[in-house]
Amino acid sequence: MTRSPFDRRPFQVLIAGEEFTVPFAPADLWIKAATAPAGPSGVLLELLSGPSRQRLALRLGRREITAEHMAAATREALALSVPGSEDDAYPWWVSYRLLISSALPSLAGRMVLAGLDPRDRTPAEWCYAAYGLLVQGLDTKQRFQLDAKLTAPPAGVEADDEWGEMTFDQMVAAARSAPGVR
Amino acid sequence: MTDTLDSMDTETEISPEEAAFKADYPAVTQVAGRAIRYAPMEAGQYLAIQSLDPDDEGVTREKVTLILATLEGCIGPRQYQAMILDMARKKLEEDFPIKLFIKIMDRARRDVEKAEPTP
Questions:
Q1: Is a pLDDT exceeding 80 seen at residue A120?
Q2: Cβ of B73 and A61 within 8 Å?
C-alpha cells in the first residue's frame, strides 16, 4: 500500500499477527517518538493511545510481542508515512535519521526560520523539507557526503532490501548513526 | 497439586520438567526470604515498562496491570499463580509482587547500561 505524503488518515500496521490502527500524527509527535528514551522500537508505543496502546503494552509485557516485532512495525509505519518515489527512494532509515536530525538545534533552527511548524506538517512533508534544508548551499562533494551518510543502510540491512532484518539492537545503532548524532 | 513457592524452594530432585523450568527461568533472586526463578526482562518488556509515564496520573489500574503482566512474563504462569495463592493464604505480603518486580527491573536496567556503548 502506498500512501500520499500528505495523507492524514490513520493506517494499520501488523504487529505479531495483530492489526493496530495508528492514528495520524503530525511531525512533532513523530519527532517526539523517534527521540524518546525507548529508541526506535518504541515509536509505535508513543504514537498509539488509549486501549490500543494498553493492549500493545500488555502483549509486550507478556512476551507475546517482542522488540523485534516492534522494530519491524516501526519500519513499516515509517515507510507508509514517509513514502518515496521511483526516482527518489526514502528507505525507512533515511526518514528516521531526518526526524532525529530535525530535533537537533542547528537543523531545527533552520526549519523554524523557514517558517515550518512540525505541529502543522505530516511526517513526510517535514522529512522532505528537512532534507531540502540540509542540502541547501552544499557543493557536489558535500552533497555526496551527506547523501552517503544519510542513505547508507544500517548494519545488517542490504541496500536493495527495503525491509531488512533489523534487530532491536541494529535499530538502536541506526538511530545513533543519524547525521549530527554522536 | 498446586505448587506454592514454598514447595518449589524445597524440591531436591530435578525432574526433566524442572530442568526445563530452570532453563526457561535461569536467573534467581530472593525477596522476603523466598527464592524466585525468573527470565531476565526482554527488550520488548523493558520497552513496555519504559512507556509508563511516572509523572502521569500516578498509580493507575493500567500501570498495575502492565507491571503484573510483565512480572508474569518474567516468572512464568506457574510461579505467578503460586505467588497469588500464597498472597491469598497470607503467606506473602501484599507488596511482594512489586518488590519482586523492582528486583527484576533493576537487573534489566543494569543489563541495558552494560549494553550501552561507551562514549
A1: yes
A2: yes
Grid coordinates belonging to A176: 545513533
Q: Cβ of A61 and B69 within 8 Å?
A: yes
**pLDDT tops 90 at residue A162:** no
- Out of A42, A45, A67, whose CB is closest to B42? A67
Cβ neighbours of residue B43 closer than 8 Å, sequence gap 6 or more: A41, A66, A67, A168
Q: Is the pLDDT of residue B21 over 50?
A: yes
A61 and B CB contact within 8 Å: yes
By three-state DSSP, how is residue B59 classified? coil
Please, how many CA atoms are within 13 Å of residue A124, restricted to the half-sphere of its CB?
21
- Residues of B38-71 as b/e, b for ≥16 C-beta within 10 angstroms? bbebbbbbbbbbbbeeeeeeeeeeebeebbbbbb
The SS3 assignment for A116 reads: coil
Neighbour count for residue A59 (Cβ, 10 Å): 21
Q: Give the separation between CA A129 and CA A10, rounded to whole angstroms.
A: 22
Interface residue of A32, A41, A62, A172 to substitute, partner B, most B CBs within 10 Å: A62
